[in-house]
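dumping this here so i dont lose it
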């Protein structure tokens, strides 16, 4: 009797705790060297940190396409802002409750395979493995500041970009919609991770794995 082949397990990649992803990769690929597993996990985290934005069917790279994406969004945000202004009563009674519910504008995200491949340099075998892992399914676990696009969108001067005052009720949220799923952990403010800091994290993970 033929045994049914089990589907590949979903790898959960915490963008601030790569050790967990390393362990999962080593379990699913037991022949992989420890240092190589650490490299793949680090590359996988970069595909999430540098995820491409998806807006109106077009892909945008962070940070190169910052201005391009925000200009593309400006007309939409302006129309939403006008709708909010029109729906807001001109005169409000002293004890009246004013609607302050946030109006969400969603931006899609998709893993940036090229960003991960850049870290792997000439290791074509690891690039293939990285691609296979993404195709099998990945869940990114992160805080908002871990995702380049969310960090940029949160700090954009939308009043200047949209050529007018933008309602504080408008909240722009980037979520994984293609090629992966995502879960945001907490809402605490966090400094943006620099490229040097990311490289330091990679080195620490490799050292920790090799020490096992």
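and the seq i came up w/
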């Amino acid at each position: 009797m033929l045994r049914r082949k089990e589907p590949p397990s979903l790898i959960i990649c915490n963008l601030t705790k790569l050790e967990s992803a390393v362990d999962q990769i080593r379990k699913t690929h037991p022949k992989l060297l420890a240092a190589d597993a650490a490299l793949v996990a680090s590359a996988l985290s970069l595909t999430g940190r540098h995820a491409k934005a998806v807006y109106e069917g077009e892909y945008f790279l962070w940070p190169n396409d910052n201005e391009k994406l925000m200009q593309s969004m400006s007309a939409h945000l302006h129309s939403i802002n006008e709708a909010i202004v029109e729906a807001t009563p001109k005169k409000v009674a002293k004890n009246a409750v004013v609607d302050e519910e946030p109006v969400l504008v969603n931006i899609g995200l998709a893993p940036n395979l090229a960003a991960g491949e850049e870290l792997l340099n000439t290791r074509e075998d690891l690039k293939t493995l990285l691609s296979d892992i993404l195709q099998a399914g990945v869940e990114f676990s992160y805080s908002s500041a871990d995702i380049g696009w969310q960090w940029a969108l949160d700090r954009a001067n939308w009043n200047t970009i949209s050529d007018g005052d933008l309602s504080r009720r408008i909240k722009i949220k980037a979520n994984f919609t293609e090629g992966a799923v995502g879960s945001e952990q907490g809402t605490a403010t966090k400094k943006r991770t620099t490229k040097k800091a990311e490289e330091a994290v990679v080195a620490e993970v490799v050292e920790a794995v090799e020490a096992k």
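Strands lie at 11-14, 52-55, 58-60, 103-110, 138-142, 170-176, 181-184.
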